[in-house]
Structure formats: C-alpha cells, structure tokens
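Morning!

This is the sequence you dropped in the shared folder:
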Amino acid sequence: MDGLVEFRTGDGAVVTVEAAEEHLGSRPVSRGDGTVRATRTFEGALDGVRAAAESALRVFRDGSLKPDGVEIEFGVKLAAETGAFIAKGTAEGHLVVRLTWSPADAEASPAP
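The structure's back. Tokens below.
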C-alpha cells in the first residue's frame, strides 16, 4: 500500500483513500497514524478527471458516429498533492470506450 490520504468533501465529510505514491521534491506531513491530509477537497481533486470525462464524451457524442450510448471507463488514482489523475494500466494510460447503437424503432420496420 502506498499510503492513505484524507480528503474532505464540500460538506465536511472525510473520504480516506489509498493513495498513489508521489515522487516530488517535498513530501506532505502525515498524522501520527501515517495518514496524510490532502491539500484540496475531494471534489477539487476530481475536477480534472471530470473535465477529462466531459471532453471524451463530447468527442464521441458530437462526432460522425452518433451513438445512442457512450460508456467511458478509466482508472483514477488519488494523491495528496496532485489530487486525482488517470491511472496507467500498463506503460500507457488506461481508457476503455464502449459505443452502443439501438436497433431501428419497431414501428419503422415492417411486420414479419
């Protein structure tokens, strides 16, 4: 385990997560039990991930494919200083995209 990080939500609740290890010049100070308090809120840490998801959805919804449904899956890691970031599954970032199309409306197709 890399360590634990406490994030506060906008309404004051505490979310404790297993954190990715950061390799920065300075290290955040931990509590006596080894848990680090994050420098931003839980929502603030996820802002960049939300923006990435919104951007990816726009690419697939507004393109020429016009799917009925878009499902995007990616791993997220949380760190005390950097917040949330998209985790790598191998040497590259991990992203799974599923596009779905519904069959034509039943009224539009002739009866058998």
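Headline: Residues 24-31 have pLDDT under 50 and may be disordered.

More detail when I'm at my desk.
O.
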